[in-house]
Amino acid sequence: MSKPKNVVVAQSGGLTPVINASLRGIIETCRAYPDTFGTLYAGFHGIEGVLKEELLNLSAQPAEEIALLSTTPAAGAIGTCRYKLKSSQSEDFERIVAVFKAHNIGYFFYNGGNDSMDTAWKVAQLAHERGLDLVATGVPKTIDNDVGGGLSADGQTFEVIDHTPGYGSTARYWALNVQNANEENAGSCPSDPVLVLQAMGRKIGYIPAAARLADPHREMPLLIFMREAGLSLEALADLVNDMLKARGRALVVISEGFDVGNIGERKDSFGHTMFSASETTVEQIVVNYLNEVGLAARGAARGNVPGTDQRHAMIYASTVDLEEAYRVGQKAVQIAAEVGGGYMSTILRQPGDLYQVTYDKVPLEKVANSERTFPEAWLTTSRTDVTDDFVRYARPLIGENWPTIPLMNGLQRFTRFAPIFAEPKLPPYLPQAYRG
């Protein structure tokens, strides 16, 4: 019988409240296969940690710290990065293979979105070309819910993945915060009749759409402006004033990707727009514009721009999301051990009125080459709301209860790994993208 091969797990891109639940699922399931998996390492701060040979020893960490991962948000435990591995960066790919060979790595779990699945596939292909038997498996995550393709022909299910871990928690954040914002707006409307809230979602509207979960029966004076709405600022102002005339106040949720012209946005190494690093915000432009053109009510428009708390506030995490994030990590390990590499673990919804999912696999190539859009059929004809079909889709994802988060001295108790790293075996290396 062959000896167990060591493991590297790494994370890439933006964070989620439940990303560490997937990591816990990977670690604990690998420990259940002692004849298959050897020492578990984490690429410290993602693929950058692999390139720099900074491999955090997860096998040496106490079980208590591993268990706390499920209620530890974001990526403070092992880190993430936004380092783009481009096809032209041949030295980076060769370095990854060299690090894997030096540390007897036979399994690579990569937690991320479409770009990460493409990277995992390319690394595995090159490893095989260089004589390294590497099983690469993807683990999905993103709050944007943009992994995989669109709706299937039945108009009710998604073929590649129903939803990504992370989205349910951010959707819950918005459902609950819109409830609170509505109370604010209802109380202050004599002087502040319009409250504008900016939601994450640079090019796809699943996050702002989740605002409707706060008001499924449409009792609030709520307007949702997604990027997909394709409306102008002038049209937005007219619609807000129509709401003011009808209801006396308006609660506006707008996507950070809503087109208001140049806002001095910056881009990360993946080419993705980072609206939170822009010179101004969509919310501020909208608030200013509404106040300049005038409101159909006495008073002024005000705004609020939630920041990265949309993806790291643990108290808003969905218990459904936490469970599913753990299960996709667990499933990824089962796939690697029992089937082999080249797949991403996935969540598929079962037909019927009762929410049920199964965990399966999908080829990495299929994920890397797919792109999800918000279904046009889920936008209302007014372009300012989403349909009941979206509500039926998203409602189960936010769960029913608050997560149970351990406290110590009144503060949240998060995972704290000991800084135990593998002994470097290769010369120091500077990633290609960081050279002059």
Name the shape in a single word.
elongated
Mean pLDDT, all residues:
94
How helical, in percent, are the residues? 25-40%
The poorly predicted ranges are none
What order do the helices and strands follow? Answer: EHEHEHHEHEHEHEHEEEHEHEEHHEE
Largest sheet: 7 strands, mixed
Secondary structure tally: strands: 15
Characterize the structure shown.
The chain is of the alpha/beta class. It is built from 12 helices and 15 strands. It has helices spanning 19-31, 47-51, 63-67, 90-102, 114-129, 167-188, 206-209, 233-247, 282-293, 319-338, 364-368, 388-394; strands at 5-11, 37-43, 55-57, 105-112, 135-140, 194-199, 222-225, 250-255, 266-267, 273-274, 301-304, 343-349, 357-363, 407-408, 411-412. The strands form 4 sheets. The chain has a 7-stranded mixed β-sheet, with helices on both faces. It has a 4-stranded parallel β-sheet with strand order 7-8-6-11, with helices on both faces. The chain has a two-stranded antiparallel ribbon with strand order 9-10. β14 (407-408) and β15 (411-412) form a beta hairpin. The chain is elongated, with a radius of gyration of 23 Å.
